Each structure stands twice: as structure tokens, then as C-alpha cells.
Amino acid sequence: MSEAIDWAQDMEARLLEAALPHASHLGWSQRTLLAGARAVGLSPAEAELLLPNGPRDLAALMAARHDRLALARLAEIDAAALKIRERIRAGVMARCDVAMQEEAATRRWIGFLALPAHVPLALRLSWASADGLWRWAGDTATDENHYTKRALLAEILASTLAIRLTVDGRAAATHLDSRIGAVMAFERWKAGLKPADMAARLAARLGRARYGAA
Hints:
0% strand, 214 residues
């Protein structure tokens, strides 16, 4: 059983790697997935068995890939030596830097996630990214603060990446620095938080990035 799991994980990674170059001109689509599958020797039927949700599964693989790469970078930093504000900044910047290394694919990935039908997936992926960054930063909250922190950081991560894609790194860094204050004051922020707020904010940021607006 473990061999089958190892094979599937290895093939998923290989398929994603092979599909990424096609995303810039084929979009984040079934065509991109199948192009990647052909490159690694998988038939369409085999690709469907491996990724039954098609491009949605491929999008999740890319998010997980970027999360792993960002955390690998952050592992070289002594988080305990930094103030929490500095940890948050380092985490978001690392995650954005990794995404920008595959800028063309990231742009098409965001366009895919910005579609209304895919916003719930975007929320789950952004939450997972924020969770990984908070854990690296040493967050151990288990009460409602656990969820509040991740909701806020997910929106900050999405907005910072959107500005990085549509403007430049300097503007993204300035935006991030201004938003970190919100993380530090999350108790006040959460008092006005409504369940739909995170989805609305994330969808707005994805849409702006998709259509080239900051």
C-alpha cells in the first residue's frame, strides 16, 4: 500500500512539473493537465484516475508545492530570533517569492481560482498556506484565535501576491507592511468579522490579479 502511495505522490509531482510550462498558453485547464500527462507517459484515463477532479486537483498540487518550497526556505531562518511581526513578513514574502518563480503559471492558476465556482477551493488552499506559515511562526493557539489568525493571514497573503503580480515587489512589500498591523491587532479586527468576509475579500483580490488591477 505504501508503495502505491509513494508512486501516486511521485507521479503527481512529475505531472505537475510537466504541466506547468503549458499553463502559460493553454491556461489552467484540462488541456494543460493532459499535456503534462502525455509528457510523463500517462494516458488520459490514467490521468483521470490520478487526478479525478482534473485542473482543480492540479491547482491544489501547485499550492502544496509552493507551500513546501516556502517552508523549506523558512526552515533556514531562526524564527525564535524574530519578533512575530518579522516572522509574518518573512513568511508571506517567502511564499510570494516562490510563487513568482513560476509567474506565468501562477497568473493562470489565479485566473482559474478567481472563477466563482472555484472560490471555495481558493479559500481552502489559502487557508492551508496561512496555516503552514503560522505554524512556522510558532503559533500554538487552539481556541477561536487559531481560526481568526489564519483567516486574516490568508487574505493578506492573497492581496500581497496580487499586488506582486500586478504592480511590483516594492509595492507588494509596502502593502504587506501596512497590513501586518492588522495581524497584530487581530482581536479588534475579528470583532467585526463576518463569515462571508474572507470569501469576499479573497475573491476580490483574485479577480483583481486576474484582470491586471492592483
